[in-house]
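tool_call predict_complex ligand=Phenylacetyl coenzyme A
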Amino acid sequence: MYAQMIKSEATQDDPEKLAAFQARIDRGEKIEPKDWMPEGYRKTLIRQIGQHAHSEIVGQLPEGNWITRAPSLERKVNLLAKVQDEAGHGLYLYCAAETLGVSRDALTEMLLDGRMKYSSIFNYPTLTWADMGAVGWLVDGAAIMNQVPLQRTSYGPYARAMVRICKEESFHQRQGYHLLLKMMAGTDDQKRMCQDALNRFWYPALMMFGPSDKDSVHSAQSMAWKIKMNTNDELRQKFVDETVPQAEYLGLTVPDDGLVWNDARGHYDFTQPDWSEFYNVLQGNGPCNAERMAARRKAWDDGAWVRDAMLAHGQKKAARRKAAE
Ligand code: FAQ
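tool_result ok
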């Protein structure tokens, strides 16, 4: 899919090179941008890092929606800072992807023409202020569960970007949880809003980890290359195990009749998400897909003059330098 923008390597199928590369990964060495890497490794990283970067940028939209309606100055400042953090995460990740030979412009164009994705979660609307708590607690919570292990991923620039991102996401998760704690100490209406937010965000949060292991196309190879450190189901289970007691502490009920602690397994048993809904959202049919893409397209089109001006400035500067030589 990304063949046109990925540097081809004459030696890419050389079995000796491949074996040496795998041995480096197995020894826990970091792969750096100028190191030789198999074409599939580069492509997989571009796909995953690009999707992650787009998710951070699109992920600003459901929360940005509430900045002007935050109930207090303190909450407004917190939310503003969180949304700015997400923009920063997008930028680190685009930079990490650029080290693989793909420009940020190319990644954005691939998002806009449907060749790349962003996380399914951001295709759901944020309807009430309690949703800002649920997004922080559950969405950032799921993101951390996925991303903490990625600090040990084999590609150096991705692993290093993940360190700061995880620190900030942890703060966001606590901020969301704190918001819900405060609302759960409030009126009956506020408590109902919190329960409704959990009811709407629980399954979409579980879907963030991707399809079940039997349907995950990329997991096996990505784990062999240490681009992914855990399977989708492992992380989903870990998320459920950690989040259910947090819901209980809040006084909320996880919307799953099949949720039960299984002593023998040492884990909660839980009902899987509706995977037909997941694939439907991936195909562009979620409640907010069209709105999110329209917002990204507008931002890209509105920013065209800035990109053109910077390019013209750069070209003029280069021409002046050349003339002076
Ligand atoms: N949404 O074979 P697998 C955040 C696709 S950041 C959309 O299992 P893989 C911060 C997958 O791409 C959240 N598509 O794939 C924040 C593949 O399709 P393709 C984002 C999904 O890559 C918080 C196909 O399904 N985090 O939230 C999803 O091995 C609050 C088959 O799946 C990351 O991106 C999905 N949920 O595993 C911001 C973390 N799941 O590409 C604002 C890094 C799967 O072949 C507010 N990414 N697909 O056409 C990953 O760890 C992986 O890419 C997975 C998927 C785990 C998401």
